[in-house]
Design goal:
The protein has one domain. Helices cover 42% and strands 18% of the residues. The protein is built from four helices and three strands. It has a three-stranded antiparallel sheet with strand order 1-2-3.
């Protein structure tokens, strides 16, 4: 059995927002069930070493702006953030059996398709394509 963790690059844009949000990405990390507990332990170790509590979002690695709300990485300087990022990446890439698949959507062109009318349609179309790729991946294992 394999687990796929899915995340998106942000909120799928509405049709009027597509020109200023031209790319939407939906990606999945595929992890074999027998490897998941090892990766999770490595991820938790990285978080505990850096006193990180809560969810880690990619944008948290950017330099903090004055007046921005605190988040799980607010207490880390740039060097510590880089150490954490490297630890998290190493935990995932350590296993050759872990795979990443993604759907990259040109949002302007997507809205030219008759079946994509709003942000929900755009998201669902991307998710359908991602889940189909996951299914093909699983079939290739057989």
């Amino acid at each position: 059995m394999h687990i796929m963790f899915v995340d998106e690059s942000g909120t799928a844009p509405a049709p009027v927002q597509a020109p200023s949000n031209a790319i939407f990405v939906l990606a999945g990390v595929i992890i074999p069930e027998d490897v998941w507990s090892k990766i999770r332990a490595d991820l938790e170790l990285g978080k505990s070493r850096h006193n990180v509590v809560g969810e880690i979002k990619w944008r948290y690695f950017a330099p903090s702006r004055a007046g921005s709300r605190p988040h799980a990485l607010s207490h880390l300087d740039a060097v510590a953030k880089e150490e954490l990022r490297s630890h998290l990446l190493a935990a995932i890439t350590k296993y050759n059996s872990v795979k990443v698949i993604a759907v990259v959507v040109d949002t302007v062109r997507a809205y030219e398709q008759i079946h994509i009318r709003d942000a929900d349609d755009l998201y669902h179309d991307a998710f359908k394509k991602l889940s189909e790729r996951f299914q093909y991946f699983l079939q290739d294992l057989e």
